[in-house]
Design goal:
- By secondary structure, the protein is α/β, with parallel strands linked by helices.
- The protein is about 35% helix and about 15% strand.
- It is built from 11 helices and 11 strands.
- The chain has helices spanning about 30, 40-50, 75, 100-110, 125-130, 140-155, 170-180, 215-220, 250-255, 255-270, 285-310, and strands at about 10-15, 15-20, 35-40, 55-60, 85-95, 115-120, 160-165, 185-190, 220-225, 230, 240-245.
- The strands form 2 sheets. Strands 8-7-6-5-4-1-9-10-11 form a 9-stranded mixed sheet. A two-stranded antiparallel ribbon has the order 2-3.
- α4 (about 100-110) runs parallel beside α6.
- The chain is globular.
- The N and C termini lie far apart (about 50 Å).
């Protein structure tokens, strides 16, 4: 579909704030330490105006930045319903350490926000949470959870409250559920993932690079930085730059030379790419590969065992 405008984007991520005040374990921002910069409302409107699509399923006002650091988040949200295409869901994710509750109240009052997500990791104890997300404080997390629910209930009862929480143990997940449930938040648990330029993630070394198109570039996704730069994915702030949505339409960027060259490198020599070559995200498998992957592996293993047994090489 290279060069053809897509009728629908599954996920649109716009980093309305570039940078974050935390230095979380496993996040590239902790080693890159970017300056905090904001996307002006005029630039936000220009980017949305250049989306020549019919619909956006999920619109996230974040990639790697902290949206609550933006000075006029409600001013951005009111621009969204003015677009000519349909946007099904709007989502904001925050680290819950920025307590601008007056602005958060105005965010809910816009009636645009469908889901407010809080990012919090660890085993559900204060010490582990603060270790993984310095210089975050547990008490500020709980204050944000409680106050945001009050504001949601008052101004936008239909907005969903949830967390995305890296926690891999049953005990930790139970602790988080006990903390979050009474505060009105539903946890979504996930495991650790190796991201390029990240430090300290307890998930082992990066996987060997595989040639092939990245899942984010094969699916209907679009990620935009604070200055309009279209980036390749949400796994690194600047893994690759494909154009600028303030200056070009989405279909022009989709068919542009920067994207073509980037895809060619992924297909032919991904291991030489400084960021994508060490990314923990596997390349996207074709549907036929997904169908035949397990039968192929079973057959290969069976034949290998039979061959080595026949030659007396298999130790019993």
């Amino acid at each position: 579909m290279l060069g053809l405008p897509l009728r629908k984007i599954q996920t649109l991520g716009v980093d309305v704030v570039h940078g974050c005040q935390l230095r979380c374990i496993g996040c590239p921002n902790s080693s890159l330490k970017p300056d905090i910069r904001h996307m002006p409302p005029a630039d936000f409107a220009a980017c949305l105006g250049n989306l020549d699509v019919r619909a956006v399923k999920l619109f996230r006002l974040f990639n790697y930045g902290e949206p609550m650091l933006h000075p006029d988040l409600p001013g951005l949200l009111v621009i969204i319903p003015r677009q000519r295409y349909r946007i099904r869901q709007v989502e904001i994710s925050t680290n819950a350490q920025v307590h601008r509750f007056d602005m958060l109240a105005e965010v809910f009052k816009t009636g645009v926000l469908d889901t407010l997500v809080v990012s919090c990791d660890g085993d559900g104890t204060p010490g582990e949470y603060e270790r993984l997300r310095p210089p975050a404080r547990w008490d500020r997390l709980l204050q944000f959870l409680a106050r945001s629910r009050e504001l949601r209930d008052a101004y936008s009862p239909a907005t969903r409250l949830m967390t995305r929480t890296i926690c891999e143990t049953p005990q930790g997940r139970r602790r988080w559920s006990d903390v979050l449930g009474p505060l009105g938040y539903v946890p979504e648990f996930r495991g650790w993932l190796y991201l390029s330029d990240a430090v300290g993630a307890p998930c082992g070394p990066p996987l060997p690079a595989e040639n092939g198109m990245c899942v984010f570039l094969q699916q209907r996704t679009l990620f935009v930085d604070y200055d309009g730069t279209v980036v390749t994915c949400c796994c690194h702030p600047r893994a690759g730059m494909l154009g600028n949505l303030k200056e070009s339409t989405y279909s022009q960027i989709l068919a542009g030379p920067l994207r073509r060259r980037f895809l060619h490198r992924l297909e032919t020599n991904r291991k030489a790419m400084p960021i994508c070559g060490t990314c923990g995200i596997r390349r996207h498998e074709h549907k036929l590969e997904q169908i035949f992957r397990w039968p192929y592996r079973w057959l290969s293993r069976t034949l290998r065992v039979k061959y080595t047994s026949a030659n007396g090489a298999l130790a019993q």
